[in-house]
Amino acid sequence: MPKMLEIRWHARGGQGAVTASKVLADAALEAGKHVQSFPEYGSERMGAPIKAFNRVSDEEIIIYSQVTNPEIVIVLDETLLSNIDIAEGLVEGGIILINTEASPDAIRKKIVGGDKYRVYTIDATGISRKHLGRRMPNTPTIGALASLIDLLDAKDIAESFKKNYSEKFTAEVVEKNVAAILEAAEKVSGEDTAKGEGGREAMASSWTGTEPYTD
Fold first, then answer.
1. Whether the Cβ atoms of residue 108 and residue 119 lie closer than 8 Å to each other
2. To bridge 192 with a disulfide, which of 35, 42, 51, 105 should be the other Cys (CB 3.0-4.6 Å)?
3. Alpha-carbon distance 207 to 3, whole Å?
4. Helix 138-146 × helix 171-186 angle, to 10°
5. Are the C-beta atoms of residues 10 and 24 closer than 8 Å to each other?
6. 17-30 and 154-165 are packed helices; what angle lies between their axes, rounded to 10 degrees?
7. How far, in Å, CA of 164 to CA of 171, rounded?
8. The three-state (H, E, C) secondary structure of the chain, written as one string
9. Do residues 27 and 20 touch, judged by C-beta distance below 8 A?
10. How far apart are CA 182 and CA 152, in angstroms?
11. Which residue did the predictor score with more confidence, 183 or 2?
């Protein structure tokens, strides 16, 4: 991990990107790191494109601006690829992690300069449906991220989630989120292939359907 790791999240309002960035920051803080977690404020309506950011460092962080040159970009909604340049400012060789059923090779072709980056995919929507019964890709995506970087183990993130969210959610909901985090860590697709159908369980409705997102 670089001395300071910078991460940018892309999502739509209601998909939980801001919460995901906080969950990651909580886990990193408990591991003794210095952290930042903050959103880019703009339209707050459901479905509008939003950004969130993380910085994680072994030393005190004295930068308070937006993250403009991240080492990692995480995308919770692949439809954003047709609207924005998600790789803008991403360092060459940086990681792109996208919630999708598609293989990294198929997604790479949709990204401006995609050959310059390490592209991984995870069907976080399918995993969240399996465990939570609804579209909430944020917690599975954190588990997937843990498997790609030498920062935190997915089990560390799961334990941190239990500690920090047991009063907010019921024990059943916490355990379901933990299960989603741990499964996603095992189902990240790389090397231009998807694991199974992106890790997705068979579902009756399309992931682009009308199920609501709630943060």
1. yes
2. 105
3. 37
4. 40
5. no
6. 100
7. 12
8. CCCEEEEEEEEECCCCHHHHHHHHHHHHHHCCCEEEEEEECCCCCCCCEEEEEEEEECCCCCCCCCCCCCCEEEECCHHHHHCCCCCCCCCCCCEEEEECCCCHHHHHCCCCCHHHCEEEEECHHHHHHHHHCCCCCHHHHHHHHHCCCCCCCHHHHHHHHHHHHCCCCCHHHHHHHHHHHHHHHHCCECCCCCCCCCCCCCCCCCCCCCCCCCC
9. no
10. 12
11. 183
State how far the alpha carbon of 23 is from the alpha carbons of 35, 117, 157, 211, in Å: 11, 25, 8, 23
| Pairwise CA distance, residues 158 & 143, whole Å | 8
Q: What do you get for the CA distance between the two ends of the chain, in Å?
A: 29
Mean pLDDT value of segment 194-202: 36
pLDDT of 43 reads: 55
Which tokens belong to 159? Answer: 């334990």
pLDDT bucket at 44, cuts 50 / 70 / 90: low
Q: Whole-structure pTM over 0.70, yes or no? A: yes
Instruction: Specify burial of residue 150 (Cβ count, 10 A radius: 0-12, 13-18, 19+).
Output: exposed
What is the C-alpha separation between 140 and 172, in angstroms, rounded?
16
At residue 6, the pLDDT reads 96
Give CA–CA dist 199/104, Å, rounded: 13
Tokens of 164: 């920090």
